[in-house]
Amino acid sequence: ALLSLTVLRLSSTLGRTFRVVKAAMQIPYLNEFLALLLPLIAVVLTFVHHGRATRGRLPAFRPLRGIAPLLQRTQDMVETGQPIHVATGSNEPGTIGASAETVASLLVAQRIAEHTARQGATMTVSSGDVAAHTAVRGTVHDAYKQSSFGGEYRGHEPLLVAHQAPSAYAMGVAQQLATEPPDALVLVGAYGSEALLIGGEAAQRHVPQLAGTTSLSALPALTLSTDATLVGEELFAAEAYLTDRAAPKARLLTHDALRWLVILIVIVGIAYQLANSLLALGLPSF
């Protein structure tokens, strides 16, 4: 009798819950509200994580292969007199604006510029897109100014090798590496299989390399030709590992939180559709 009563109460509760959900689905502009909810959550999480980063209450980050040697290189490069070269890649022809990989590479270039400026060393940056080139000139100059070395900035250090021509860009950077081998090469951004031209040339010159991209066509070539490769989302996390500033670390924590949120939404959505289909609940489908 007790079991039957429990089952009846559970059935009644589920029935009321489904009726509430069904009624909620009829609320005007519900889809628009849900579309705005995720950006709002992102803004709130950014402020929360920025506060955590400012107070130093950060979780332990797993190490990324190649970051520690690069940071050590920025400290020792003043003795060699050679610059670190950051190659930000080239977008495909017809690309409008900067890709996510290109933005990540610009942020990496900015953080490396901060390190080299503080050490009194030099760096060069090559771009394969006019928009990215304009942006990298500003970010590198800003990095020098924030490190109180604005007078040391040289406008010719960022180089425009080609515009939205990946193969031409790769051959141009490879030629530059052959002519003036840098102290280290950071090969991050939007790349395809042409990345092997750059990585292979640097490997022949025994130049230490750190690579990073999200392209499936470039990852095998970079993995074989470089010392360390950042795979996929590690490219977007690299900036936070190259600085002690709070904002990049807050962005990294927010990215992780949003990824878990999206995974949760997908799981709940699958469970909702399965329940609606198998139990014939009559709820709206998406």
Q: Helices and strands, in N-to-C order?
A: HHHEHEHEHEHEHEHH
CATH topology of the largest domain: the name is: Rossmann fold
Overall geometric form: globular
Low-confidence regions = 1-8
Task: Give the total of beta strands.
Answer: 6
User: What CATH architecture label of the largest domain applies?
Assistant: 3-Layer(aba) Sandwich
Mean pLDDT: 79
| Beta-strand proportion | 5-15%
What's the N-to-C terminus distance?
40 Å
Radius of gyration: 25 Å
User: Sheet bearing the most strands, described?
Assistant: 6 strands, parallel
Q: Could you estimate the helical fraction of the residues in percent?
A: 55-70%
Question: Care to describe what's here?
Answer:
This protein is an alpha/beta fold. It has two domains: 70 residues; 178 residues, 3-Layer(aba) Sandwich (Rossmann fold), CATH 3.40.50. Helix content is 60%, strand content 10%. The protein contains ten helices and six strands; from the N terminus they run αααβαβαβαβαβαβαα. A six-stranded parallel sheet has the order 3-2-1-4-5-6, sandwiched between helices. β2, α5 and β3 form a beta-alpha-beta unit. α4 packs parallel to α9 and α6 runs parallel beside α7. It is globular. The protein starts with a helix and ends in an 8-residue tail after the last helix. 35% of the residues are buried. The N terminus is likely disordered.
Sum this structure up briefly:
The protein has helices at residues 2-24, 30-54, 67-80, 100-119, 130-146, 166-179, 195-204, 219-225, 234-241, 246-278; strands at residues 84-89, 123-127, 158-160, 184-190, 209-213, 228-231. The chain is of the alpha/beta class and 286 residues long. Strand 1 (84-89), helix 4 and strand 2 form a beta-alpha-beta unit.
